[in-house]
Amino acid sequence: MKAFLILEDGNVFTGTSIGSTREVISEIVFNTSMTGYLEVLTDPSYAGQAVVMTYPLIGNYGITPDQESKRPWPDGYIVRELSRMPSNFRCEGTIQDYLVKYDIPGVAGIDTRALTKILREKGTMNGMITTNENYNLDEIIPRLKEYNTGNVVDKVTCDKERVLKGTGKKVALLDLGAKNNIAQSLNKRGCEVTIYPAHTSAETILASNPDGIMLSNGPGDPKECTEIIKEIKKLYDSDTPIFAICLGHQLMALATGADTHKMKYGHRGGNHPVKDLKTNRVYISSQNHGYVVDTETLDPAVAKPAFVNVNDGTNEGLEYVGKNIFTVQFHPEACPGPQDSSYLFDRFIEMMGGKQ
């Protein structure tokens, strides 16, 4: 069956339908990772977006246990070529069946390189995936321009509190759309990790007397999370050690008076270089974000830049003055990698008074 990707600038790509055949409007973003497509699909940060994979062959090792959450989250999936006969000793099924199971529409067989060049040149834009060959551009394009992802954190956060037992430091993890490997990275270092839904009050978290607080990654515009930002400000004021990743990093900045803005096309992939401003050492990182903290709005008495993106100079991390708080835009827990920056979890444990 034919499928069409219609962009809000009027460009139309024709390919083959994969997954669900339902029609969807979403923000279209691209990911440059050469492996780890399953971790991309199950990253809650992609809620409200349709993902274009720039690597041309997707699905060659099928569906394996390497999943970052309970289900896939993108609104749509766009690939150059879909492998319909995966080969791997851990394979449990195909991408096609997986997308059908979770009602996610997709398109295969389009020129993803040309599509990515458009998104890089014109910026991230909204689009529609449809199997309707009689589509009307004059009707569709105004709908695309009006689309907004809204507050998608509520969609991806956990339903209730749960605990990963450990014998070391007690960490409270605020789940804003957390990837599994954040909790696992702490747990394998001995931490007992209590995972809380995104709208848990600061009072509830602090009443458990955690040794440290972890703010997770998550989807959407950070400014949509107004109530969560208020609670994070209370956590900031508590003087409890805090480590934040991605959306958590942005929300802490907003909670302390800084601003964020949307990037032209964001950073999504597994090969982004970031520089530690303290040591001048460069790490290769995994990233997935479309918003960034505006360092010009930082109060130097509150926070100072700690990491910077080598490619475009955007902020990749903050260190908070007089506080045991540091935050990063990239993913030190990255699966399948790179794992250059996983040492940051050890730094967090040291902040809590533990040993590496």
TrEMBL record:
Sequence similarity: Belongs to the CarA family.
Domain Carbamoyl-phosphate synthase small subunit N-terminal: 1-130
Organism of provenance: Roseburia porci
E.C. number: 6.3.5.5
Name of the protein in its database record: Carbamoyl phosphate synthase small chain
Binding site for L-glutamine: 45, 218, 220, 247, 250, 288, 290-291
Active site (UniProt): 246, 331, 333
InterPro entries, sorted: Anth_synth/Amidotransfase (IPR050472), CarbamoylP_synth_ssu (IPR006274), CarbamoylP_synth_ssu_N (IPR002474), CarbP_synth_ssu_N_sf (IPR036480), Class_I_gatase-like (IPR029062), CPSase_GATase1 (IPR035686), GATASE (IPR017926)
Reactions catalysed, as given in the entry: hydrogencarbonate + L-glutamine + 2 ATP + H2O = carbamoyl phosphate + L-glutamate + 2 ADP + phosphate + 2 H(+); L-glutamine + H2O = L-glutamate + NH4(+)
Name of the top EC class for this enzyme: ligase
Gene3D superfamilies named in the record: 3.40.50.880, Carbamoyl-phosphate synthase small subunit, N-terminal domain (3.50.30.20)
Gene Ontology molecular function: ATP binding; carbamoyl-phosphate synthase (glutamine-hydrolyzing) activity
Function of the protein: Small subunit of the glutamine-dependent carbamoyl phosphate synthetase (CPSase). CPSase catalyzes the formation of carbamoyl phosphate from the ammonia moiety of glutamine, carbonate, and phosphate donated by ATP, constituting the first step of 2 biosynthetic pathways, one leading to arginine and/or urea and the other to pyrimidine nucleotides. The small subunit (glutamine amidotransferase) binds and cleaves glutamine to supply the large subunit with the substrate ammonia.
Residue ranges that the Swiss-Prot or TrEMBL entry lists as coiled coil: none
